[in-house]
Design goal:
elongated; mainly beta; 106 residues
């Protein structure tokens, strides 16, 4: 007969939060953005493609986040310039929290 104490099943955690509260909790944090419509330089002009980039969540409004990132110019001139992006809460499909990073899936 096994003398081990019987394990009790933990009750599921139900938080009294809205998705917007979770997104607002990211203020001031650096995140990785997984963007299926990333605007990037191309050999001739610009292109839209899947992009992953680091950004800092700097603020927000009632229904959007503000992030700061860098736009990397291609070609000989190269260089980077700061970019402020306004992302509606409805465009954030999922938030993944890993040990070392947080990913915003757009």
């Amino acid at each position: 007969m096994d003398n081990a104490p019987e394990e009790k099943a933990a009750a599921p955690a139900v938080e009294q939060k809205h998705y917007a509260d979770i997104l607002r909790s990211l203020m001031g944090k650096t995140v990785t953005v997984a963007n299926p419509e990333s605007y990037e330089d191309a050999p001739i002009g610009h292109t839209i493609k899947v992009g992953f980039y680091r950004a800092k969540v700097t603020g927000g409004g009632l229904d959007y986040l503000v992030i700061m990132t860098e736009y990397k110019h291609a070609g000989k001139t190269g260089g980077v310039e700061p970019v402020k992006q306004f992302i509606p809460f409805t465009d954030v499909n999922r938030v993944s929290v890993l040990k070392q990073e947080i990913i915003l899936h757009l």
